[in-house]
Design brief:
With 170 residues, the protein is α/β, with parallel strands linked by helices. 39% of the residues lie in helices and 18% in strands. The protein is built from five helices and six strands, in the order E-H-E-H-E-H-E-H-E-E-H. Strands 1, 2, 3, 4, 5 and 6 form a six-stranded parallel beta sheet that branches. The longest helix has 16 residues. The protein is globular.
Length: 170
């Protein structure tokens, strides 16, 4: 019997995006037979990465292992100053310097990008898609967006997540 595929849901906040990640996990768990886990980047006490810093960091290695062991991702993060939240950029940098090849945590994996933002989150969605694709991740065309004026469209989220799990099962 084939090993179950693993989806890692990654939240860049303790608040609304973490709640969104938990809700999306429930949708996946109720509809498919994949292993899911949610991590909150705030739980990883990573120092600010600076060029030349010692890269042997146990916390960063643990986070890198989570990414390397995943078959797919659901990223939940807000738009921050018109782009990515710093905690997400810092985590990605640490992952890239603690794997054998800097793309090992991301390449040939599928991802859905989700956001819970005060505004539309569009700048985050566009910038993050570009970064993930550059790192070798295959990003699903549909995103999941929650704003102050728009709650989670559950049916749309179910379709998007179904497409992700369907691709992982091939």
């Amino acid at each position: 019997m084939a090993e179950k595929k693993k989806i890692l849901l990654v939240s860049a906040t303790r608040g609304k995006n973490y709640e969104l990640a938990q809700e999306l996990k429930k949708i996946i768990d109720n509809t498919t037979a994949v292993d899911t886990s949610v991590i909150n980047l705030n739980s990883y006490d990573l120092p600010l990465y600076k060029p030349g810093i010692e890269t042997k960091n146990e916390t960063a290695s643990e986070l890198s292992a989570e990414f390397e062991n995943a078959d797919g991702f659901v990223f939940c993060a807000p738009e921050y100053n018109g782009g990515l939240p710093p905690i997400l950029t810092n985590a990605f940098t640490w992952i890239s310097v603690t794997t054998a090849n800097w793309r090992d945590g991301f390449k040939d994996k599928f991802a859905v990008i989700a956001t819970s933002s005060a505004g539309s989150g569009q700048r985050f969605l566009v910038a993050f898609r570009s970064q993930l694709e550059y790192m070798g991740t295959l990003v699903m065309p549909k995103t999941i967006t929650v704003t102050n004026g728009q709650s989670l469209n559950r049916k749309s989220a179910e379709r998007t997540l179904h497409n992700l799990t369907h691709l992982l099962s091939k």
